[in-house]
UniProtKB/TrEMBL annotation:
Alphabetical UniProt keywords: Acyltransferase, Antibiotic resistance, Transferase
InterPro entries: Acyl_CoA_acyltransferase (IPR016181), GNAT_dom (IPR000182)
GO terms classed as biological process: response to antibiotic
EC number(s) stated in the UniProt entry for this protein: 2.3.1.82
This protein's encoding gene: aacA4
Coiled coil: none
Organism for this UniProt entry: Tautonia plasticadhaerens
Entry GO MF terms: aminoglycoside 6'-N-acetyltransferase activity
Enzyme class: transferase
Protein name: Aminoglycoside N(6')-acetyltransferase type 1
Secretion signal, residue range per the UniProt entry: none
PANTHER family named among the record's database cross-references: LYSINE N-ACYLTRANSFERASE C17G9.06C-RELATED
């Protein structure tokens, strides 16, 4: 598996995935504005496409919730956090371990920065499958919270609780750390 930056060339694919019932069920109220967002590269965000043997299989967003422009996570986010959004594109790819591999790569990217102390995710409160997924990876539920129209459970994985100790370095373009 490999994570690569999403580009404007991914626009049709991401719009297509956004229309899949399992993606809508996990993220029903967000408008990603792909046409705009794929053309931007703010320093606080990475938009990534996961590929398995060269085939796109999923999407990841990693943000610094303190710097993120909409203040989705609130106005008083402490430093040292990252937040991740993740989904598998095709329903036929669910249950194959792709999400686990994607999340492990994403966590490795997050914790490679020594200033990152924890990672947050916010699945819908009704998404029991996502809760089990994050708990298997070591995340702990820390609060139930509304984000706009969505009733969510905020999960947190502290660096000390990560199931491995990633290298303390920041990956760069062309870095072999983009692959596992």
């Amino acid at each position: 598996m490999r994570l690569r930056p999403a580009t404007p060339d991914d626009l049709d694919l991401l719009r297509y995935w956004d229309e899949q019932p399992h993606v809508i069920a996990s993220d029903p109220n967000d408008d990603w504005a792909w046409g705009v967002e794929l053309a931007r590269s703010p320093s606080w965000r990475e938009l990534l496409v996961a590929e398995e043997d060269g085939r796109p299989v999923g999407f990841l967003q990693i943000i610094d919730p303190r710097l993120e422009e909409s203040h989705y996570w609130g106005p008083d986010v402490p430093p040292g956090l990252r937040a991740i959004d993740l989904w598998i594109g095709e329903a036929s790819d669910l249950g194959r371990g792709l999400g686990t591999r994607m999340m492990r790569l994403a966590l490795g990217r997050c914790f490679a920065d020594p200033s990152v102390t924890a990672v947050l995710v916010d699945p819908l409160a009704s998404n029991a499958r996502a809760h089990r997924f994050y708990e298997r990876l070591g995340f702990r539920a820390v609060e139930r919270r509304r984000f706009g129209d969505d009733d969510c459970v905020v999960y947190r994985l502290d660096r000390a609780d990560a199931p491995w100790q990633p290298p303390l370095r920041t990956p760069s373009a062309g870095d072999p750390g983009l692959c596992d």
